[in-house]
């Protein structure tokens, strides 16, 4: 609107000057055209300014007192150059001012957006439940959000300027050892709070460069409880497997003691050595062995079994077996039903059983062409059936397959005995069967959903 009004006013003024020039031919009003021309140059493009300058020069020459002079063309040219130069000069000045104004506006908007983004980022960092730290090149803390201050037991606002080596020495070492422009990684380490308490930490960190030098940003999580739970679970699993192995040894020693006792009784009845001190001592020794192995070492069946997600376990097993299967040239085949129910078991124990069975199959398939191991799982009423099958030569004596200390075993001969004991401790069963061209191990595990329905009933 402002531009339109200004151009209309310039046009009217130009017409008035032309009328005055026409009414008073002896007077020269041509210089007055310069006013509306300069004003219109503020709003017009270069081409439009040039057209207006030509029009003003024509009007000056047509109505002025010098139109009959012999140097008319020269005078017109000089007038046109003056008008055009002045108008373009004003137009260029105004264009630059507009560019500068636009640039200043954009710069102001960008600065406002940057401040808004910084405030949002600062708000996210300060309200984040994760502990976030930024460190300078010398290892001093530059920024620590509230979660980081709580994690390190520091007073509010006291973290900046402190040396991170006093709290998380691994981060200080990372600043010294990693000189590459950018590092993205996750590390585990120990930390120390401001009150001297030690804790385990997972740290996701990245380094970046600034004009002041390299810096490091880290997200720190206290995983002391997770590490404790993991170690306790591993310890329980170790104790359970140790109980099973000890039970197997106890079982075999008891059998040997029973045989020795029977032989001792036979000798006592058939020979006259019952009064011998050595014979009596031997009897006491055998009786002591019987008492020592008179009962199985129990496995803790009362431990809480929260259930295992078989679909997740099979994905983990696939990752573990891939490299080994490629090295032994054994094809891994999977036939896993979708949405398998959770089963009553321990994740680590069941994974160990499946690893033992698949490793036995791979050993049995050494040197065989077109060798494969199939791992299948599908639900049956109240349970889940897991099958580990291979196209190996099979088992020569399946009736003694699950007995401990098997002859010809590559290690202790306890693998299958322990595996079945582990599955039975979950309330399941491990069996062997021979199919056409395949040897199969069947693991039947109780479904947690079925157990819940039974408990409710």
Commentary on this structure:
The chain is 52% helix and 18% strand. It is of the alpha+beta class. It has four domains: 2-101, no CATH class; 131-222, 2-Layer Sandwich (Beta-Lactamase); 244-292; 310-456, Histidine kinase-like ATPase, C-terminal domain (Heat Shock Protein 90, 2-Layer Sandwich), CATH 3.30.565.10. The strands form two sheets. The chain has a five-stranded antiparallel sheet with strand order 2-1-5-4-3, sandwiched between helices. Strands 6-7-8-10-9 form a five-stranded mixed sheet. A hairpin with a 5-residue loop joins strand 3 (184-192) and strand 4. Helix 1 packs parallel to helix 3, helix 3 runs antiparallel to helix 4 and helix 10 (347-364) packs antiparallel against helix 11 (415-425). The longest helix is centred in the N-terminal third of the chain and has 56 residues, at 72-127. The two termini are 84 Å apart. Residues 295-302 and 453-457 have low confidence and may be disordered.
Short description:
With 457 residues, the protein is of the alpha+beta class.
Widest sheet: strand ordering: 2-1-5-4-3
- The number of helical elements comes to 12
CATH homologous superfamily identity of the largest domain: Histidine kinase-like ATPase, C-terminal domain
Can you tell me the overall shape? elongated
Main features:
457 residues, alpha+beta, Beta-Lactamase, 4 domains, 5-stranded antiparallel beta sheet, 5-stranded mixed beta sheet, 12 helices, disordered C terminus
């Amino acid at each position: 609107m402002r531009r339109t009004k200004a151009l209309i006013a310039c046009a009217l003024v130009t017409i008035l000057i032309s009328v005055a020039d026409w009414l008073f031919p002896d007077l020269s009003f041509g210089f007055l055209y310069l006013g509306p021309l300069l004003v219109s140059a503020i709003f017009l493009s270069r081409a439009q300014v040039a057209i207006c300058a030509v029009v003003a020069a024509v009007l000056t020459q047509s109505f002025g007192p010098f139109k009959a002079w012999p140097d008319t063309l020269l005078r017109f040219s000089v007038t046109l150059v003056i008008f055009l130069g002045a108008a373009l000069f004003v137009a260029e000045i105004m264009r630059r001012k507009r560019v500068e104004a636009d640039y200043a506006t954009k710069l102001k908007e960008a600065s406002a957006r940057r401040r808004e983004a910084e405030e949002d980022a600062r708000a996210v960092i300060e309200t984040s439940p994760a502990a976030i730290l930024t460190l300078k090149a010398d290892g001093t803390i530059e920024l620590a959000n509230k979660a980081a201050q709580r994690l390190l037991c520091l007073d509010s606002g006291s973290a900046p300027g402190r040396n991170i080596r006093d709290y998380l020495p691994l981060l200080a070492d990372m600043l010294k050892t990693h000189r590459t422009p950018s590092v993205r990684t996750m590390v585990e380490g120990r930390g120390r709070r401001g009150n001297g308490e030690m804790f385990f930490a997972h740290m996701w960190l990245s380094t970046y460069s600034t004009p002041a030098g390299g810096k490091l940003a880290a997200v720190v999580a206290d995983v002391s409880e997770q590490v404790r739970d993991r170690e306790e679970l591993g310890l329980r699993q170790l104790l359970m497997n140790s109980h099973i192995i000890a039970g197997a040894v106890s079982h075999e020693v008891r059998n040997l003691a029973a045989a020795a006792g029977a032989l001792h009784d036979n000798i006592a009845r058939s020979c006259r050595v019952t009064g011998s001190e050595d014979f009596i001592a031997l009897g006491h020794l055998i009786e002591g062995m019987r008492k020592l192995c008179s009962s199985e070492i129990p496995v803790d069946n009362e431990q809480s079994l929260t259930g295992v997600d078989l679909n997740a376990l099979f994905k983990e097993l696939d990752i573990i077996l891939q490299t080994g299967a490629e090295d032994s040239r054994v094809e891994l085949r999977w036939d896993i039903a979708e949405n398998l129910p959770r089963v009553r078991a321990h994740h680590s124990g069941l994974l160990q059983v499946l690893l033992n069975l698949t490793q036995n199959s791979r050993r049995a398939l050494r040197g065989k062409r077109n060798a494969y191991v199939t791992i299948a799982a599908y639900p049956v009423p109240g349970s889940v059936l897991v099958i580990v099958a291979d196209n190996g030569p099979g088992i020569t004596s399946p009736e003694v397959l699950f007995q401990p200390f098997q002859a010809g075993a590559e290690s202790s001969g306890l693998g299958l005995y322990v595996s079945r004991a582990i599955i039975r401790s979950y309330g399941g069963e491990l069996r062997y069967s021979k199919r056409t061209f395949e040897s199969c191990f069947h693991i039947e595990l109780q479904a947690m959903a079925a157990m819940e329905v039974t408990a409710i009933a």
